[in-house]
Amino acid sequence: MAKDKILAPEDVFHEAESYLNKEDVGFIKRAYEFAEKAHEGQFRKSGEPYIIHPVQVAGILVDLKLDPETVAGGFLHDVVEDTEYTLEDISAAFNEEVAMLVDGVTKLRKIKYMSKEAQQAETHRKMFIAMAKDIRVILIKLADRLHNMRTLKHLPAEKQRRISNETLEIFAPLAHRLGISAIKWELEDTALRYLNPQQYYRIVHLMKQKREERVHYIDEVMEEVKRQLKDVDIKAELSGRPKHIYSIYRKMMLQKKQFNEIYDLLAVRIIVSSIKDCYAVLGIIHTCWKPMPGRFKDYIAMPKPNLYQSLHTTVIGPKGAPLEVQIRTQEMHEIAEYGIAAHWAYKEGKNASQQSNEERLAWFREILEWQNDATDAEEFMESLKVDLFSDMVYVFTPKGDVVELPRGSVPIDFAYKIHTEVGNHTIGAKINGKIEPLDYQLKNGDIIEMMTSKHSYGPSQDWLKLTQTSQAKNKIKQFFKKQQREENVSKGREMVEQELRAAGFEPKELMTEEQLKTVLEKFSFTTEADMFAAVGYHGITAAQIVTRLTEKIREQQEKDKAIEETIEEVNASGQSMRKKAKGESGVRVEGVDNMLIRLARCCNPVPGDKIVGYITKGRGVSVHRADCPNVQTDHIKERLLEVKWENEQSEKRSYHVDLEISGYDRQGLLNDVLQVINEAKTNIMAVNGRSDRQKIAVIHINILIHNNQHLKKIVDRLKQIQDVYTVERTIQ
Ligand code: MN
User: Fold this and answer.
1) Which is it for the CA torsion 220, 225, 231, 235, positive or negative?
2) Which residues make up the environment of ion ligand 1, defined by Cβ < 5 Å?
């Protein structure tokens, strides 16, 4: 591949004409024109017009002799992401297939290799293949990356390293998997140049020094082979095998060898026209020079997992040094260089795009089945299986680590894969920033953020059905076991029943299926057993359940009472003052016991408050709190008289109290207030709230209080609510 020359669009068309018909060349010309228009006015970091990039990418694809759709995809690969044109535009201007390829490349761009952990790289590569759907998307992506690597010098140093690292970890191995060694070598060498420039240039320098000596020796060997082949009339193409900088570097690092030890190993490649000739040439080589035992490999009979075929042997060469020989046919050579791409290469009379996807898959399957016996096929199987028979999905943690899960997995599977505690405390999941239900089926590339709470009730029995992984199922079962579930369910049920009886209710009446169902929903439990188990291990209190269970009936009671009171009031108004005076208010006037006594509405005194009586005109005594502003004025002093609570601890009667609660206006504040009051088993008679522009919420509530201790308890609890500033008893 010509890496130094910047291709003009005409170069690409010209190269395409060597294997495509007129119509197809017209098709890719249109793709170029479309891309040029779309990218008009855009520039790369290097300052060049943007269109140069897609032209080079298409050029690489044409080099691989790929079908017109793939080449068009190369021209158009950045259009959807970087210009105002959409997939629909591409689909309309070209066809569905080109649009699908461009869409695939656009999606792959979203995958960022963020993690620095080595084991993540393999999962990442699988994810790429899984997401690409069509292997040609990967081919375009590789061409894109190759040109980006060639122009990496225009980026800042930090980016150069990050991209080089990603190239080495993800893209070069992908190219290798697909057998495209031409791209693989260049990616690796370029990446090394940025990641370890010192070693890179040192190796380049050493290679230069040795070149002449080496070329001379190889020529000598090739002359000898040619002579021998001529005798038996076999046509062959001979070449010295180029050594790649990165492979030398790697061997030096991994095998701790000196440059010379690696570089001095000479290698020649012989390309012939038939398999029969391959073996014939092998025979000749082995006759000329002594083969080294254990070094002969027949990759023709047993191809490598990435389709590579060749005969390999090492002999003791003319100067007594080991000489590596590779023998293969032209077709095998193409596959060695271009791998899977060679299979898509356009051949006269058989347009790759005429092949249906089904045929392509069939082709893959064939290879995979045929690979079954090969010993090192496993690795390759693993990676391609993902694509074709995929039963896995690949998703991200918010930090960018990839997690591999079976297809159909839900967020709970993910949570347990991360950590048991994350699973056990799961209350929800955000997928790509949006809250989704726990039965959401994960898709490739989803970014998953689990929502957990220390106060969660733990897993639900239902989760066992939702989850796909045995890991999650086992952890959930363990949790239940640990919670001694059965025991807790019956214990919890008992606790709720006791609490109900204590509150004066009959459990059987209230714990009906229908009632329980509404309570389950309120607390987001899935089953009754889950709820009782939670009570059993104190995940939630029995009182909380009872408050909810008795909600309706208490409301009803409250209404009944209000009606009763109204009736009483109406009745009382027609009767003598005396009759009503009898201790109804819970307040007594010293020395008088038949006085009509009312509690003042302005300050709503409760037992325990300091109080004072005020003699009204014809309506008896009204009782105020001693500090009520309405009884502070001088001119009414003579109308005040001393009054006392009959029983300050009385819980028989309830008294209205108005409270004003102010706090930061956040979501759920009102709810928290109501919950505190509910938990204190206190009835609320009226609530209203408002908020102002400063985000200050003011909540007015009217509650029924037994005495001032009861009141103090509630006020104290209200003050403990997060974001509540003040709680005050109001006077009207
Ligand atoms: Mn690009």
Assistant:
1) negative
2) 78, 144
